[in-house]
Amino acid sequence: MIFVVRAKKSATVLLNTLTAVQAEYGETDYSNIFQDSMNGDETADILARHLNVIKRCKTGTNGCHDSPIKLAKPQDKDGSGTAGYFAEAGLRSMGPLLVLADGSVIAVTKYSSCKRIFEATVTDENGNVVTDEDGNILKEERVGYSCFDLTVDTNGNKGPNQIGRDIFSIFVDPDGPEKGSRGDLWNILSAEEFKVVPYTPGTPIK
After folding, report:
1. pLDDT tens digit string along 118-152?
2. What is the DSSP code string of 107-139?
3. Pair 49, 24: CB distance under 8 Å
4. Which residue, 21, 25, 175, 189, shows the most beta carbons closer than 10 Å to its own?
5. Could you tell me the pTM of the whole model?
């Protein structure tokens, strides 16, 4: 299947790029290369030296990837009881973008610290947000360990623009890519299967 081929190719590109950065700096600890003081654009500068980039969009600018991104399966993300988006503004909402010659687009999300506490929405076992009796979405504190995330759309703005189909993320901690990935990328590489559900945003969650 073409999406499996693209996922494998993009994964190889990302992993080879990270290895090339280590070789450039003579350093294996990514927290020493991509320091806390660096922002997303500075992080993208380093990565771009090892990628075949044909276009760049700095943080918050349009023109590289503005297509809405669907979740891997229908989930209520705003308490409305309807299926929502992962990112309605596209990859540009996630940081600076690098458009590659093969048509893929990479978003770079840089964090101020590799280990950090952040606020996240509380979800149920199906990934739907949990609300209190007044309809307010519940929040909780979580701990993150990645220094930065790389999110790739394997075919750019073309559809289906869905997590786990043509959009994936890897999370890079000081030692390298974490075992977890957004879109179940590592499983796709080994099992060559997708765990996604087609849906139309705005439809009721059953």
Report:
1. 999 999 999 999 999 999 999 999 999 999 999 99
2. EEEE-S-SSEEEEEE-B-TTS-B-B-TTSPBPE
3. yes
4. 21
5. 0.95
